[in-house]
Write a structure and sequence with these properties.
The chain is α+β, with helices and mostly antiparallel strands and 298 residues long. The protein has 2 domains: 114 residues, 2-Layer Sandwich (D-amino Acid Aminotransferase, Chain A, domain 1); 160 residues, D-amino Acid Aminotransferase, subunit A, domain 2 (D-amino Acid Aminotransferase, Chain A, domain 2), CATH 3.20.10. The strands form 2 sheets. Strands 8, 9, 10, 11, 12, 13, 14, 15 and 16 form a 9-stranded mixed sheet that branches. Strands 1, 2, 3, 4, 5, 6 and 7 form a 7-stranded antiparallel sheet that branches. Helix 2 packs across helix 3. It is globular. The two termini are 29 Å apart.
């Protein structure tokens, strides 16, 4: 998985407000607004063979997310893309995770922070499989979460906003303490929504079913996998899915920048067996993100 060294104490460089700074010097003040009020937006990106997969889509979402939180990133998309690539080169990385984050600074402390400086930082580090490979190939175990994704009129769900992940951390910890890899969250209506950091798909009678992202993030990996499935002529049904339906599905997998395409073997009492559709989409996704390796194999 990721490096085990503490994230505040590493060698390398982080891009901070327009320049590369030594890793340990990339700091913010304790009264930074984002720390107290969650006024930050971030992206999770992954580079394969030195190339960040769908970089512009991530950058566009970062800028859009900042706008949803009522602030503007002080750099345009071309500048942010260039900075992400610069961080990878500066740290001599190839396969890695890239984390851009933009936030309100410390000029004002309180709910109102209209005069705060907007900052942007980009870090990158080595990153392997989000789940151990042996566990991933046989399917991960998931439990049901207690917290639910909020209604769209009560949270800015289209932004990858830092504050929205608080309940995800709580549920991830709860799942891991119970021996599971992740937790499946319902939405405010009681419909299946997503896992703590990944979208979810189910398969029944050769048809792929996935929740409609009307109150949770429509993941870039999610959209990519849907496109891959449709390119193979598979039917993808985006719809409301109730937890009572779990027993009717034969396959299940989750998607995300970190999770990529990961089969699921268990959700609570329900069991699934990774099958042909899951394996095909997993292989198609890995071929897409690693075109150099695919070309070499051919």
């Amino acid at each position: 998985m990721a490096d085990i060294a503490p994230y505040h104490d590493r060698d390398g460089f982080i891009w901070l407000d327009g320049q590369l700074v030594p890793w340990r010097d990339a700091k913010v003040h304790i009264l930074t607004h984002a720390l107290h009020y969650g006024s930050a937006v971030f992206e999770g990106e992954r580079a394969y063979d030195g190339e960040i997969f769908k970089l512009r889509e991530h950058t566009d979402r970062l800028i859009e997310g900042a706008g949803i939180l009522d602030f503007n990133v002080p750099y345009n998309a071309d500048q942010i893309d260039a900075a992400c690539r610069e961080v990878i080169r500066a740290n001599n990385l190839s396969d890695c995770y890239v984390r851009p984050i933009t936030w309100r600074g410390s000029e004002m402390m309180g709910i109102s922070a209209q005069s705060n400086t907007i900052h942007l930082a980009i870090a990158a580090w080595n990153w392997g499989s989000y789940f151990p490979m042996e566990q991933r190939l046989k399917g991960i175990r998931i439990c049901m979460a207690t917290y639910r994704r909020p209604a769209p009129d009560s949270a800015p769900y289209r932004a990858k906003a830092a504050g929205l992940y608080m309940i995800c951390t709580i549920e991830k910890h709860r799942a891991e303490r119970s021996g599971y890899s992740d937790a499946l969250m319902l939405d405010y209506r009681g419909q299946i929504a997503e896992c703590t950091g990944a979208n979810i798909f189910f398969i029944k009678d050769g048809v792929i079913h996935t929740p409609k992202p009307d109150c949770f993030l429509d993941g870039i990996t999610r959209r990519t996998v849907i496109d891959l499935a449709k390119a193979r002529g598979m039917t993808v049904n985006e719809r409301a899915i109730m937890p009572e339906e779990l027993g009717s599905f034969t396959e299940c997998f989750i998607t995300g920048t970190a999770a990529e395409v990961t089969p699921v073997s268990e959700i609570g009492e329900q069991r699934f067996k990774p099958g042909q559709i899951t394996e095909t989409l997993l292989n198609d996704y890995m071929a897409l993100v690693r075109p150099k390796k695919q070309a070499a194999a051919e």
